[in-house]
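**Discrete fold encoding**
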Amino acid sequence: MNKPTSTTAFDIPTLIDAGDDGQATPAFGETKPLFLGKELISANTLCSMAPRAYLVKDLLLFGQVSMLAGPPNTGKTSVIAMIAGHAALGDAIGDRKVTQAGTLYVAAEDPIGVAERGSAVLGKRRSDALPFDIIPSSVDLTDSEMMERFGRELCEYMKARALDKIFLVFDTLNLCLGDGDENSSRDMGKAISNAQKLALEHNAHVMIVHHATHSDPEKPRGSSAMIGNCDTLLVLNEARTTEGEMVIAVNQKKQRSLARGEPLFLKIAAVEVGQDTDGDPITLPVAQPVIGATPMVNKPKGTGATDTDARVQHLLQTLRQLEQEQSGVFHTATSLRSKVTGPFNALLDKPDSLRKAIARAIDTLSKQGLVEKADDGSIRVKS
């Protein structure tokens, strides 16, 4: 088939063989066409996928924006400090490789707490790590003028620290919006757009920390524009391992450029970092990957498991954990409402539905002979 003659308004260059970047290059002396001052990217001449640089393999990519959301007190700051600390050292997170990179953390709340957690992750190796620096103030992601200044200073910062890539964190979204409204699609679109510009121009992975809704812990609070515009959406939820250990599940709810993978499971450990004036130990919460355990999730994909199945299994594991902590003690259905999580999360703000779900799970476990009941209806797991 004869190659068609171009009829566009652009002077398309003659192409030669692809270079190391996988993209064909213009012939000597010719330039790539421009549109509105930007070089065009040609699907016709893209010979192979260029290597995608990752911060965390199969999870976070440089040049992109992620959002990490979760209910209050699920360890968001500890999780991000762990990612940043591992990046500063170039250490893998479990079996996931991590590219060594510096971190600039915009801590609009509790900057000292962020620094303490980061220091605890780095431990005795902090002098060998790339910079993990904290900005102790808010930055308005919706203010284009401020973000232009932020970009200029970020460029100077990276030059001064000799960094060619960076992990950039804005914590939390509602404190980094100025007069903007998280429920406004316009404001959220502008915020994410400014974050994407930083990611692309500075070889950064930009992570925005946000809260989940009370009604649905799987969904960030506010306008759906934030979900549509960000490249990656991670949601934190509590879960238990089959051994009964409480862990944090980092669920991949959206991946624009990657296949959505399995959750990353972490535990929050108390790490001793020093002593107070009385000589008593000071501990800080540090997120650590769960290795060798089998976490339970709400509904394993492809297994045909139902919400009810997951709740029954979760309640059984909860009772087993309680038995380890308080051997022989019976537990009322009412007291169990504050113990369950995971598959019950969607019902936590619906007291009547939660009561009925726990009652159904107890009835199923009783029929299976896995629990025993006292005269008042309270239960414990059979030994």
